[in-house]
Design goal:
This protein is α/β, with parallel strands linked by helices and about 450 residues long. Helices cover about 30% and strands about 25% of the residues.
Length: about 450
């Protein structure tokens, strides 16, 4: 019934206490308050290196980008850039964060299914390396903007290979019925390549696809490469274009429960690189520069969240609820995707006997279940609870529901800690509110 803490990287237990990145998490909670996101720099760097090595060992020209949507803080962008990563940015806000981190703009790829004209112009002004074009309308807009600025925008086109990966419906993106990209099926992808490659303001260099997130099976990655390789052969023949770049997106999984079996990055790298080499050889075409954009798999395991336990409420014959001082606003994933998480009481992390099952709830004004059922060691008010594998899509998706300030983010490194995002204050929550003069009460 006890969870396998050792399956979560960066963790350790000393005298019953949970450590993360060499730091005693109960002390971190005391020093910085809760809820608290904690990122372990060593785990983050190791994940970067594992992905780079897995792909670089099998392919000569490869660049890994971090999908910033999974976690954007200036310090994190700085660390991954330092590890040789580029950045996948999906908004002006994410571009700006990368620039503030000192990341190389030529290694940034701008994404989005609806990029506004001013966003495209801003990207060109900032020297963003590549724009991932999602529609013909966008290609035309970018072409106009680039010509107006007397420049050429380097672009790749997002296509949808029609692959249904077995993941939650909201995070499937590569199937035919999707708002993203241009479908290969039916010939639309081929047509847009023909049109874009002729636009004077655009330097068309290749293709992009992304089939979903938290994909546990390697087969969809293989099938997508085959389909896109078919498209490459078709457009090279039809339009005489050169496919210099191929970006295969992200989607690699992390462990959310310690019983989950996980294929290593090597398996995905072998499937993608192996299939691509085989297909290009069969078509007699040169290998494109390969890009990938992992998000969750790089930052997910590098983070945990700390909470303080509040009321523990037993409903006889039903279950016992444990409340923590966060919930929906700092981790909306259980509510949105039925996401599962595991947790321990940080001060009794290795207790294996006498564990009982609890439901962990947040403190929002609705039923914000964080963990449906988890065995815990006698949680009491004031205890610190640690939830694992929260580095991805937690801080980046956090909100202010019920006017809860967003938690701080702390970076730990071999036992030392630094704040990398300050906790929001209640003043911050109203910093942009404006009271019309006529409503101000006279005293
Ligand atoms: N590239 C593109 C174009 C993407 O849209 C995404 C994620 C990624 C890369 C990174 O995917 P990853 O390696 O992280 O799976 N909020 C959801 C996940 C949404 C993913 C959206 N796109 C969640 O919390 O599960």
């Amino acid at each position: 019934m006890a969870i396998r803490i050792d399956r979560y990287p960066g963790t350790g237990v000393k005298r019953g206490k949970l450590y993360f990145g060499g730091a005693d998490v109960t002390k971190l909670a005391k020093e910085y308050g809760t809820p608290l996101y904690v990122i372990d720099e060593t785990t983050l760097r190791n994940r970067c290196r594992e992905y780079r090595t897995a792909f670089e060992q099998r392919y000569d020209n490869v660049t890994v980008l971090l999908a910033c949507k999974a976690l954007t803080t200036i310090a994190v962008s700085g660390i991954v850039s330092d590890e040789g990563f580029g950045l996948d940015v999906a908004s002006t806000g994410e571009m700006y964060g990368g620039i503030k981190a000192g990341a190389d703009t030529s290694m940034m790829f701008l994404h989005g299914s609806y990029k506004k004209e001013e966003e495209l112009a801003q990207a060109l002004k900032w020297g963003i390396g590549t724009v991932v074009v999602d529609s013909l309308l966008e290609a035309k807009t970018l072409d106009r903007v680039a010509r107006g600025m007397k420049t050429k925008a380097r672009v790749i086109i997002r296509v949808t290979p029609g692959v249904e990966a077995h993941t939650h419906e909201m995070i499937q993106t590569g199937k035919l019925d999707t708002k993203f990209g241009v479908p290969i099926e039916g010939g639309a992808a081929s047509e847009i390549v023909g049109a874009v490659s002729k636009m004077k303001g655009l330097d068309f260099t290749g293709l992009h696809y992304h089939i979903g997130s938290q994909i546990l099976d390697v087969e969809p990655f293989r099938v997508s490469v085959r389909r896109v390789a078919g498209l490459i052969a078709e457009v090279v023949e039809k339009y005489g274009v050169e496919i210099r770049d191929l970006d295969v997106g992200g989607g690699y999984p992390v462990r959310y429960t310690s019983k989950q079996a996980l294929p290593a990055p090597d398996k995905f790298a072998a499937a993608i690189c192996g299939t691509l080499k085989k297909e290009m050889k069969a078509a007699g075409l040169p290998l494109p520069h390969l890009y990938l954009e992992p998000g969750r798999s790089v930052v997910g395991p590098a983070g945990i969240t700390l909470y303080t336990v509040g009321p523990v409420k037993e409903i006889p014959g039903v279950r016992t609820y444990v409340s923590v001082d966060g919930g929906l606003s700092d981790n909306p994933r259980p509510a949105l995707y039925d996401a599962e998480y595991e947790a321990v009481i940080a001060g009794r992390a290795d207790t294996k006997r006498g564990l009982k099952k609890y439901r962990v709830s947040g403190r929002h004004c609705e039923t914000d279940t964080l963990i449906k059922e988890i065995a815990l060691a006698d949680p009491k008010p004031g205890d610190i609870m640690a939830v694992f594998s929260t580095g991805a899509y937690n801080y980046s998706m956090a909100g202010n529901y019920n006017k809860f300030p967003r938690p701080a983010v702390v970076l730990v490194n071999n036992g030392k800690s630094d704040i990398i995002v300050e906790r929001e204050t209640i003043e911050d929550l109203y910093a942009k509110d404006v009271m019309p003069k006529r409503l101000v009460k006279k005293v």
